[in-house]
Amino acid sequence: MSSDHATDLTSETLEARARRHLWLHFTRMSSYQGNDVPVIVRGSGQYVYDTQGKRYLDGLSGLFVSQIGHGRAEVAEAGARQATELAYFPLWSYAHPRAIELAERLAVLAPGDLNRVFFTTSGSEAVESAWKMAKQYFRTIGQPGRYKVLSRAIAYHGTSMGALAVTGLPDIKTPFEPLPPGGVRVPNTNFYRAPGFVADDLGAFGRWAADEIERAILREGPDSVAAVYLEPVQNSGGCFPPPPGYFARVREICDRYGVLLVSDEVICAFGRLGYYFGSQRYGYQPDVITFAKGVTSGYAPLGGMIVSDRLMEPFGTGPVTFLHGITFAGHPVSAAVALANLDVFEKEDLLGNVRANEGAFRRTLEKLTDLPIVGDVRGDGYFYGIEMVKEKATRETFTDEESERLLRGFLSHALYDAGLICRADDRGDPVIQLAPPLTCTQEHFDEIEQILRSVLTEAWKLI
Ligand SMILES: Cc1ncc(COP(=O)(O)O)c(C=O)c1O
Fold first, then answer.
1. I want to staple 194 with a disulfide (CB 3.0 to 4.6 A). Which of 199, 211, 212, 427 is the partner?
2. Structural contact between residues 77 and 446, judged by C-beta atoms closer than 8 angstroms
3. Average model confidence (pLDDT) for the chain?
């Protein structure tokens, strides 16, 4: 490649070079053959900008990541200072100050006796690390038969082979089978699509969904089950909050059968639901929390798991070593950035902002229910899904062909063209997902609502 080419940053050449060389994730690359690749070049606050300088409201915080918003010099500078002082050192046998400080800070913020932090670089690695830890823990305490993990239908827990086995989305698993054995599915908490016998009673639905976990444990054999993975609010499928009492019941069931409760908070931690951890919002005590994304607000990559003292015990006292490690896990620059990110949370009371404004966010989005295409608006905090339906009264959803035409053929482009980054997804039923930066206030909610109203009104005409 010529050097001229490499330094030419005009939008046409960037897009052409992206088309030629860059492989976008979970993206049908052929759809860009005759179309522009969207190229985002800069961000500031709640907005990002493309090569033409056009502004977009970042209604998804990138990918559920940019909690504090874009362009925070103090967070970037914390990373730069750290790179100058100590750019890299591994956590294999050694420690470095930022990893120590961050581990301590996370342990203080985390609920109960979750006091031990194992860093990774991503959410998938966090999910997979928790599974490996659970398997080795049970072997060490004399229960070697426990290797299975329960998770919910349509739930997304990551893409590496182990994490994919925990993920509950058949379409993204099938091409990679056989996966590591042991992934078992249980129902999710989509009340809008609850089975008829509990469809009118949220409490009964929650009890049923939790009891299905017990039935799965009994069916699989309690001695073979290591853990159940649950997000506080399930993302995939379009934001399913837990019914009241759901997590209390799950906790009881886990205790009854000695199964670990892993709260996968890769999205739901760091303010997304108005608390540092989603489990704090719903008042349950996990054995492990997995996190990533918002811990750095994306200024550098980082993930990890926070583990209870009880689970750490066999690894901390005898000759046992957790036989697992990742070169860049707990990277000094990422750890420094995470600390600076948490400073912003504190200084600006971002949890307080979410708690004060989440009602307004909900009310603003609920205005959209007057549109014929909007079937359900659901979520908590700054985390919402809007389910689209063909027939509101019957909740009839779209056929695969209609959904393809609606989502990929129209909505994704139209929302982007209208200046809103969000996600139009049909991994379950078709939904639009929103997770804006935690700094957003009414003016941003109004902008989101107005763009959605005009684009969804157009979408309805195409059906
Ligand atoms: C709940 C949950 N777990 C795990 C992951 C995987 O995280 P990563 O993409 O950082 O590997 C995600 C990613 O969106 C997620 O939402």
1. 199
2. no
3. 96
Residue 160: CA atoms inside 13 Å, Cβ hemisphere, count? 12
Query: For ligand 1, which residues put their CB under 6 angstroms from it?
Result: 122-124, 127, 156-158, 231, 235, 264, 266-267, 292, 303
pLDDT of 36 reads 82
Mind giving me the DSSP string for 209-256?
HHHHHHHHHHHH-GGGEEEEEE-SSB-TTT-BPPPTTHHHHHHHHHHH
| CA-proximal residue: ligand 1, atom 4 (nearest) | 157
**Cα separations in angstroms, 375 against 51, 385, 394, 397:** 36, 11, 10, 9
pLDDT value at 176 more than 60: yes
Q: What is the DSSP secondary-structure string of 172-218?
A: HHGGGPSPPTTEEEE----GGG--GGGTT-HHHHHHHHHHHHHHHHH
Measured in Å, residue 65 CA sits from the centre of ligand 1 at: 10
Degrees to nearest 5, angle at CA 229 with 117 and 64:
70
* Cβ neighbours of 133 (radius 10 Å): 23
Is pLDDT of 84 > 80?
yes
How far, in Å, CA of 156 to CA of 266, rounded?
10
**pLDDT tens string 193-210:** 999 999 999 999 999 999
Q: Cα of 396 to ligand 1 centre, how many Å?
A: 30
Q: What is the pLDDT of residue 9?
A: 61
**Which DSSP string corresponds to 417-432?**
HTTEE-EEE-SSS-EE
Return the DSSP state at 38: P
What is the model's pTM? 0.97
Task: DSSP letter for 167, please.
Answer: -
